[in-house]
Write a structure and sequence with these properties.
single chain; 201 residues
Length: 201
């Protein structure tokens, strides 16, 4: 399946794309790698977060599909300065939230505590979306309309994980099926074979 088609399908799942850098990366060409590399702590946070958003079940999870590397590449090389700042500040806020509520940073918190911190981030994202409604059009789906770079951290995280996962070879070969021609073509089919009824006029 073409990458643009995968992007379109994934945009439909998300209800639109919020990061101009993401659209540029998926529809553009090559770019130097890791211009603004993540710290080891930030990279580990992205790995754990990827697994929390799409864990491994009977099918591969986000980590199996290489999503953490996808996130680092997007944030480092394709995000705008503003998009990158919001995302990295969001990682910092997760640590601050966990330190305040549980006495340890995000990585050293329990799975349940990590989930609580993400629920708090999601609540913030939902409040932002409610206060800034955006119509979903074909233009905005493909990044041709106005893109809200101010979208909060959790929105960006979910977007990166879902797009990274569903545009990966791992997910496209295990969870998605591409049918260039839906159904079956039979140029010699008879009316009886197709289950139709014959009428004698």
């Amino acid at each position: 399946m073409l990458r643009r088609q995968l992007l379109t399908n994934t945009c439909v799942l998300l209800g639109g794309i919020t990061a101009s850098g993401l659209v540029s990366a998926l529809t553009g060409g090559d770019k130097p790698l890791l211009t603004f590399p993540l710290t080891s702590h930030q990279a580990q946070l992205c790995l754990v977060l990827s697994d929390l958003v799409i864990p491994r079940t009977d099918t591969p999870g986000a980590v199996d599909a290489g999503v953490p590397n996808f996130i680092e590449s997007l944030v480092s090389d394709w995000y705008t300065h503003r998009e990158r700042t919001i995302f990295l500040d969001g990682l910092t806020e997760l640590d601050k939230y966990c330190l305040k509520e549980f006495g340890s940073d995000f990585l050293n918190s329990t799975s349940a505590q990590q989930a609580v911190s993400l629920q708090d981030a999601e609540t913030i994202a939902q409040a932002y979306a409610k206060a800034h409604p955006k119509p979903v059009t074909p233009a905005t789906l493909m990044g041709k309309g106005d893109i809200d770079q101010e979208a909060p951290f959790f929105t960006k995280l979910k977007e990166l994980v879902v797009v990274g996962y569903y545009t990966s070879e791992t997910a496209s070969s295990t969870e998605m099926q591409y049918l260039p021609v839906p159904g079956r073509y039979d140029g010699e089919a008879t009316l009886q074979a197709s289950g139709g009824r014959q009428y004698i006029w």
